[in-house]
Amino acid sequence: MIKWAKVLSTSALGTAIAFSSITTSHAAEMRTAKAETTEHVSISQAQAKGIALQDCDGTVTSTEFKQESSVYVITIVTNNLERRIVEVSASTGKVVKKQEVKLWTQNQVKEFVSKHYKGAIQSIIFNKEMLEYKVIVVDGKVEYTLTVDGLTGKVIHENKKELQLMPEQKIKETAVKQYSGYVYSLEFKEATSQYIAVILKDGTQYTVTLDAFTGKVVNTSQQEVKLLTRQDAEDLALATYAGKVKMVEYDQNTAIFTVKIIKGNTEYTVRIDAVSGKITYVKQDKLQPLTENAVKVLALKHQEGKVEYIELTTENSITVYVVTMVSGSKQQKLKFDAYTGQECS
Questions:
Q1: Which of 127, 81, 76, 79 has its CA nearest to residue 98?
Q2: Environment class of residue 318 by beta-carbon count within 10 Å: exposed (0-12), middle (13-18) or buried (19+)?
Q3: Model confidence over 64-120: pLDDT tens digits?
């Protein structure tokens, strides 16, 4: 029986050996090229950033390494609002290319937006990483939030929303935060959608106009004012309701004096505006006379001895208690207002 075997021809064997040699050679070249590339990178990314920032003040927004040319491509936004692209050699650290593009300034963006949107610009913020401006515009009850391309000045996004009227308490807090005083009065002007707040602080009156939807201060003015003293308030109350003053209190949060006056068997509660001096409120309450026990305690505080007799009477249109005191062989009479407990002469 004859056995057949496949024999590789001389030409085929040569081809296989040649291909093997080429593959081995190519791999060696790749390893050499990679080694050469690695050897040429002697500058770190951090060093490249420092080199790029040497002749300008700004913020690095991106860094890219290009292996084929062995350079760092660094993008910077300068403090003068220029977009600078700097290429730094990874082997030598030298700047091999520089490109500058001026960005739109805040004033240019403001002018552009003002031409295309009615209303007041509330704020403009620049995003260095995105190279974009965020602009907020309020037109009456509508607020626009715009994204403006810093390179072209075009509005690339617009968000529109209806605003709600700010509550009075929030407006008061906003005004007080800026002037550290207290709100004397607050008035809403529907025609202009504004609040007028009057704030008092250390004898100064601030008149502040605020946008009713945003709370932003639109205008402010100030003037010196003279507030009433406690004695002024007491005198004004007594001029209208003659009697005996029981109490005087001042509330600085409302700039109001409260004076309580007792006349006969009536107590008057009088409130007076500390700025204008006008009486803003009056309340009358009928009083009951003090009890005899309460009067006895008052008498013993004024005079040592023994209370012999207490009589309720009227003298000169004033209801009084007459207390007869005995101390040893001496007898003395004391008189107290039947409603206030004040000693009468």
A1: 76
A2: middle
A3: 999 999 999 999 998 888 889 999 999 999 999 999 888 999 999 999 999 999 888
- Whose tokens are 């068997």? That residue is 265
Give the separation between CA 136 and CA 331, rounded to whole angstroms.
86
Asked if residues 241 and 270 have their Cβ atoms less than 8 Å apart, the reply is yes
Residue owning tokens 């029981």: 246
* DSSP string over 195-213: EEEEEEETTEEEEEEEETT
Q: Distance (Å, rounded) from C-alpha 46 to C-alpha 53?
A: 11
Q: 3-state class of 325 per DSSP? A: strand
Q: What span, in angstroms and rounded, lies between the C-alpha atoms of 296 and 307?
A: 7
Place of tokens 């601030």: 206
250 token code pair: 């001042």
Which two structure tokens, joined as six digits, stand for 271?
């409130």
Q: Which residues pair with 205 in a beta bridge?
A: 200, 223
Transcribe 110-145 into DSSP letters: HHHHHHH--SEEEEEEEETTTTEEEEEEEETTEEEE
Long-range Cβ contact pairs of 285-292 (< 8 A, separation 24 or more): 287/262, 287/339, 289/265, 289/319, 289/321, 289/338, 289/339, 290/321, 290/336, 290/338, 290/339, 290/341, 292/321
Both structure tokens of 295: 């009067």
- pLDDT tens track for 168-200: 999 988 888 888 778 888 999 988 889 999 988
pTM of the model: 0.48
